Amino acid sequence: MAAASVAAHIVPKQEVVSFVERCMGAVGTPVAHATALAQALMTADYRGHFSHGLNRLDMYVQDIRSGMTVKDGEPTVVNERAGTAFVNGNNLLGPVVSNFCMELAMRKAKDAGIGWVVACGSNHYSIAGYYSLKACDQGLVGMCFTNTSPLVVPTRARKPVLGTNPISVAAPGKESDSFVLDMATSTCALGKVELHDRKGLPIPTSWGVNSAGRESTEPKPVLQGGGLMPLGGSEVTGGYKGYGLAMMVELFCGILSGGAYGPNVRRWKTNDRVANLGQCFVAIDPEAFAPGFQDRMQDMMDCCRNLEPAEGETEVLVAGDPERKHMAMCDAQGGIPYHVNQITHLQDLAKQLEVAPLKEKK
Ligand SMILES: NC(=O)c1ccc[n+]([C@@H]2O[C@H](COP(=O)([O-])OP(=O)(O)OC[C@H]3O[C@@H](n4cnc5c(N)ncnc54)[C@H](O)[C@@H]3O)[C@@H](O)[C@H]2O)c1
């Protein structure tokens, strides 16, 4: 999770949403689709995952502009049973496909106890947690997975064939408390390696390998012919478990959906062909199981948070707490803090698209 910038430029949440709508509207995206994307990107930034918010806006603009992503239409249900559905995303924006799938999964969960929906023909959808949280907000357990471009090198290999394939699980506790695990299955994001390279800094162990498959603390060999390490790092520190989790995500996404999978997913930042991502959305109604789910979930979270912190630490967190703190910080200052370089980049985009610039908080 990115730390908030020190000399931050504060932008109200609603203005972040409006800005995305303006930019996407300028390239012909219908309002409903632009809003779906805008809400997802704003939420990523609000939760502190700046790599997946406004930072990626120009990518979506380009995808719509070039026709690589389809700007209008709706996903279609190809095959459906009581608790499952297979959806074709029809190459629409990722959040449009994903909202459709998660809403379908939630309806099924309320009826059948579980809704397991898998999509092919989708696109990048920002943070996985945005969708699992939709289920959690309705008292359900939500899970969400997506495959992504191959960047991760399997344990003992040299070549990246898996994406950073995120996993998200969100479960309600009491009084709007929740457990929200939302994580990549690589040790770190590619962007972090790029940042270290730009600053001329070495990278920690467990982040990446060179083209020979050997762990490297130099960013360049990782970026040029190498790749990221799975969660856990090398074999000796359990990296094969992250490798297994990335494969599990691929099983639920590209393989179950018949979309692109593993090395067949188009390379990151290329758009020579449609992405055809596979994605998976699950909603589970805890009422289908033992009564008292939320009490026990809350008790488990409280148990962890109330543990005596290790020497030098001040508190024990549960998944979702860092993002909760970030959102509270945004609320206290009346908006989301952006780095000046990010603002400059967005104002350039606004000029290029001839839309009103991003307005900072007065
Ligand atoms: N769409 C895509 O292609 C794609 C690919 C990869 C990642 N992502 C997204 O990127 C975002 C960032 O992923 P990440 O792996 O860098 O996240 P991260 O490492 O910042 O956090 C991972 C999880 O750990 C929890 N956490 C963090 N510190 C904790 C602590 N001290 N104690 C307990 N829990 C703690 C967080 O709440 C979060 O649930 C996610 O939202 C993910 O969905 C998207």
From TrEMBL:
Pfam family, one: Ldh_2
SUPFAM superfamilies membership: L-sulfolactate dehydrogenase-like
GO MF, one example: oxidoreductase activity
Region (Disordered): 206-226
InterPro entries in the record: Mal/L-sulf/L-lact_DH-like_ah (IPR043144), Mal/L-sulf/L-lact_DH-like_NADP (IPR043143), Mal/L-sulfo/L-lacto_DH-like_sf (IPR036111), Malate/L-lactate_DH-like (IPR003767)
Keywords: Oxidoreductase
Stored PANTHER family: MALATE DEHYDROGENASE, OXIDOREDUCTASE-RELATED
Family named by the database record: Belongs to the LDH2/MDH2 oxidoreductase family.
Protein name: Hypp5841 protein
Origin organism lineage: Eukaryota, Metazoa, Chordata, Cephalochordata, Leptocardii
Encoding gene, per UniProt annotation: Hypp5841
